[in-house]
Specification:
heterodimer, B: mainly alpha, rod-shaped
Chain lengths: 186, 239
């Protein structure tokens, strides 16, 4: 299983911000490339959980990195870079999802090769469908916790809620997801 | 709310590495006696693993180079018009210098060249002035649009509304705007024909007589029949 690690360590983030604010365009480009490499997988994973569609997840991820590209040099550092990027990703993913016509069902894109394609495809479809029926808050907290390397404190910071609320929200989201999955025989 | 809710939250905390040794011990003691909580823990682990493996396949398949390139394209697009106009201005001045040089080599004196100024010079000056004015205006507009785009990106629906607005404005401009280059083509041809009578040398004749008017006509028709329908399709996709 390939781990999708979701954050840079604070020292690396600080060095990256110094380069992003540099006067040379080469340094700024380098800083953006580092951000892109570090966050492309978790941002895409987050967008996939929030939109439920591979196409929309790719579109949303593209928009996220466009915003990051334009705003990295002006980022004030009041929060972690990862917190800032995930907040952008959450907003962008929901905005992308909102463009989908209300009458159109949740698009389910088949996953890539797997050991048991038919079974995995069905499980994947059921999971995405169940996630799509949860509220935005519950879907977001489950999606953030599914990213490896993101601590509960960082998730609380990203969502702008206290630490205790993160756990209770996760717990409630888990119960609702389990109930949705039971309905479809997952 | 059942009595196990606290333990269920403790299961979540342990699953994500936020549980200390004491809490973990209390949880283990409870799990030894509560099958519902054991099931909750199994289900929670399974859901987490499913969500992770669901995204790993997608992450492996994405064309990251294409994604990176699209971000750069959007960034560059805002500066293409002022850059294009600046290049046009330089090209125009270069053509003027080359034309003058050929005229001089063809035997025309500076006095004769200057005598053309009332007919040809006014047109050339007007074209140069138009390019400079358009360049300054487009530069100011591009900067304002980038500021507007940045502001739109900060709000929740701003980016979508900004894209729609940009597309609607471009479609509106092209509704009649495509006629401008098509209408300018005959004027260019007439200017060149007038220059014939003033005995302007051959190289400039070829350029202004045929190529420039044809280019302007193609530009206008491209705007009407290719660009405008494409923008309309993009706007429909965003709506």
């Amino acid at each position: 299983m390939v781990a999708i690690s979701a954050a840079l360590d604070p020292a690396r983030e600080a060095a990256l911000l110094v380069r992003a604010r540099g006067t040379s365009s080469g340094e700024r480009e380098e800083a953006f490339n580092e951000v892109f490499e570090a966050f492309r997988k978790p941002v895409l994973a987050l967008c996939l959980h929030l939109t439920g569609s591979r196409t929309e997840a790719e579109d949303a991820a593209q928009d996220v990195f466009l915003v990051v590209f334009k705003g990295l040099a002006k980022f004030r550092g009041e929060s972690r870079v990862s917190t800032w990027i995930y907040r952008i990703a959450i907003r962008t993913a929901f905005r992308t999802k909102a463009r989908r016509p209300k009458t159109e069902p949740l698009i389910v894109d088949p996953p890539g090769p797997a050991s048991d394609p038919a079974l995995d495809h069905e499980k994947s479809r059921q999971l995405r469908s169940a996630l799509g029926r949860l509220s935005a808050d519950h879907r977001t907290v489950l999606a953030l916790f599914s990213l490896e390397g993101l601590s509960h404190l960082e998730i609380a910071s990203t969502l702008g809620i206290p630490e205790g609320t993160v756990w209770s929200r996760l717990h409630l989201a888990r119960k609702k997801l389990a109930a949705e999955l039971r309905c479809v025989g997952y | 709310m059942n009595g196990c809710e606290g333990f269920e939250i403790a299961i979540e905390m342990r699953l994500h590495g936020a549980s200390d040794a004491d809490a973990s011990e209390r949880l283990n003691a409870h799990l030894g006696t509560c099958s519902a909580c054991r099931k909750f823990e199994t289900d929670a682990r399974r859901m987490e693993e499913s969500m992770r493996s669901d995204t790993e396949d997608l992450v492996r398949q994405v064309d990251w180079n294409r994604l990176r390139a699209r971000v750069r394209q959007f960034k560059m697009a805002n500066w293409s018009l002022p850059a294009g106009l600046l290049l046009s201005l330089f090209g125009f001045l270069a053509a003027l210098l080359v034309g003058t040089s050929f005229a001089r080599k063809g035997g025309l004196t500076w006095r004769q060249l200057i005598s053309f100024a009332p007919s040809l010079g006014v047109v050339l000056f007007a074209v140069a002035l138009l390019i400079v004015v358009l360049f300054s205006y487009s530069l100011k507009r591009s900067a304002a649009r980038i500021r507007e785009a940045r502001k739109a990106e900060e709000s929740s629906d701003g980016l979508l509304a900004y894209c729609r607005k940009e597309l609607e404005e471009q479609i509106r401009r092209l509704r009649l705007g495509w006629l401008a280059p098509v209408g300018a083509a005959p004027l260019l041809f007439l200017t060149a024909w007038n220059a014939h009578r003033a005995q302007v040398p051959g190289v400039l004749l070829v350029v202004t007589d045929a190529i420039l008017p044809a280019f302007f006509i193609v530009l206008g028709l491209h705007g009407r029949f290719v660009l405008r329908p494409r923008l309309q399709r993009e706007l429909e996709e965003l709506s």
